[in-house]
Please model this.
Amino acid sequence: MKRIKYVHGGFTASEISLGCMRMGGLSVTEADRVIQTALDEGIDFFDHADIYGGGSAEEKFAESLSGHPGVREKMALWGSLWTEIKLSQKKQDCDPEI
Model:
């Protein structure tokens, strides 16, 4: 899996992220399976937003992780905000050379 270096924050994460918008509708077992499959495939970048399912997606994600100590430290979480961010700013936050 190709990785990207994020200049602000000094971390790297997978080039592909898993969007968790629909995770709130899953059971904990299903959420576990989705998260584990992503990690097995080298995806360690997960996208969340407070607006996803009125917060239920984030709650389900956290509930799933609570049963797996140490897994959270292997992830990068993208906390999307309900706001408009210019593409030029996003490009400044990433180093495409890695």
Summary: The chain has a mean pLDDT of 78. Helices lie at 28-40, 56-66, 87-92. The CA atoms of residues 46 and 81 lie 14 Å apart.
